[in-house]
Amino acid sequence: MIDRLLSPRLLEALGDSPAVALLGPRQSGKTTLALEVGAKQGALYLDLESEADRAKLAMPELYLADHADRLVILDEVHRAPGLFPVLRGIIDRGRRAGRVAGQFLLLGSASLELLKQSGETLAGRIAYLELGPLNALETQPRPLDELWVRGGFPGSLLARSDARSLRWRQDFIRTYLERDIPQFGPRIAAETLRRFWTMLAHHQGGLLNTAQFARNLGVDAKTAASYLDLLVDLLLVRRLPPWHGNLNKRLVKSPKVFIRDSGLAHALLGIPDRETLLSHPVLGQSWECFVIENLLAAAPAQVEAHFYRSSAGAEIDLLLSWPSGILWAIEIKRSLAPKLERGFHAACADLQPKRRFVVYPGTDRFSVAEGVEALPLRGLAERLGEASRG
Fold first, then answer.
1. Would you say the C-alpha torsion 329, 333, 337, 341 has a positive or negative sign?
2. Burial code of 2-18, b = ≥16 C-beta within 10 A, e = fewer?
3. How is residue 208 annotated by DSSP?
4. Are 241 and 306 in contact (CB under 8 A)?
């Protein structure tokens, strides 16, 4: 069992809110974490992909009322949208009876669908948490490059060989395309969506150009945008927004897009192992996106992430904005002897971030310029994790 960083926050949310929604892509470990937490509280677990469990909820008010004194875990709850009004009634009756927290834990694979369904009926009664694949802090002391190449899905990372890991990811992609994605939107040809997903892998970390994707796919821009929205909604792709401060600068306005799990990106590109990755053109962008995703997994929930780029060439790979207004500027390098470029210094002159870091693949910490510290990914992730717990 690998301890998940989200576990304390999940327990805290269950202690504060009547319902908690745990979002994350399939196979990221939501059910395992929920069962681990539920075992400590004597929870009842229902999988709504199981016909037997769905049959128990044929009359949900009666069935759930019989278990009103227990935490009820509902897995793949988006498959039963009609259940949400029932949950609202049960939660409100529980509140009147003095049970103000810890009634339901809802697990779902699609953020937008679950947010829409729950937000319409459970407003003020539900908290939301997101569980991604395993990250750099959770997988210590495993080599970081293994996590980078294979990605953080447990079935892939813990496979007995690189070949088995790649096969798991290929099967995962096929299952999503042929079974899971059709559940969440209009019918999309699996081969078309695979081409689009593969285009994103080749474009890993690049600026979004919907028109170019549309031309390459032979569809209109609105259709290409809907494909991207779907993959973002399924928590498989991230749109990293540009920073738009009140500056007298011409700034890039398009978001960066990348596949959130590096292992899936490598599978789409046919990269089977570390040696192949090190000679592949996507190497630098893959490393940058891997670092960004792991830092965001460790960062406090209230921290907002951006990148910064001006038309004059000033650039910061990752800009973290804290609620107090403080900025952290993070440059990402694949070199063991990282050197800062003029664009980073120019961007820092524009924004005046309080903290400045360079993340690189080594193990030491050292100063690369006045006020700029170079450190490993896990070192900066630990700092963010401490800030999150604090």
1. negative
2. eebbbeebbeebbeebb
3. P
4. yes
- Nearest alpha carbon to residue 273 among 176, 143, 381, 378: 143
Q: How far apart are CA 278 and CA 151, in angstroms?
A: 15
Cα–Cα distance, 199 to 182 (Å, whole number): 20
- Quick one: which H or E segment has residue 305? strand 304-309
Measured CA to CA in angstroms, residue 326 lies from 42, 137, 261, 286 at distances of: 42, 24, 28, 28
CA distances from 229 to 14, 56, 86, 129, 316 (A): 30, 34, 29, 20, 25
Cut 0.85: pTM above it: yes
DSSP assignment of 232-248, as one string? HHTTSEEEEPBP--S-S
For CA atoms 169, 175, 178, 182, the dihedral sign is negative
Domains and CATH numbers, the chain: 7-130 (3.40.50.300), 144-389 (1.10.10.10)
**Start-end of H helices in the chain:** 7-16, 30-41, 51-56, 60-65, 83-96, 111-121, 144-150, 154-157, 162-175, 190-202, 210-217, 221-233, 262-268, 274-278, 283-298, 342-351, 377-389
How many beta carbons lie within 10 A of that of residue 185, not counting itself? 16
Which amino acid makes up residue 236?
A: L
Distances (CA, A) of 20 to 54, 97, 266, 297, 364: 20, 19, 33, 19, 40
Q: Give, for all 390 residues of the chain, the pLDDT tens digit.
A: 789 999 999 999 999 999 999 999 989 999 999 999 999 889 999 999 899 999 999 899 999 988 988 999 999 887 787 888 899 999 999 888 888 899 999 998 775 566 666 667 788 889 999 999 999 999 999 999 999 999 999 999 999 999 999 999 999 999 988 887 777 666 778 899 999 999 999 999 999 999 999 999 999 999 999 999 989 988 999 999 999 876 667 888 999 999 999 999 999 999 999 999 999 999 999 999 999 999 999 999 899 999 999 988 999 999 999 999 999 999 999 999 999 999 999 999 999 999 999 999 999 999 999 999 999 999 999 999 887 665
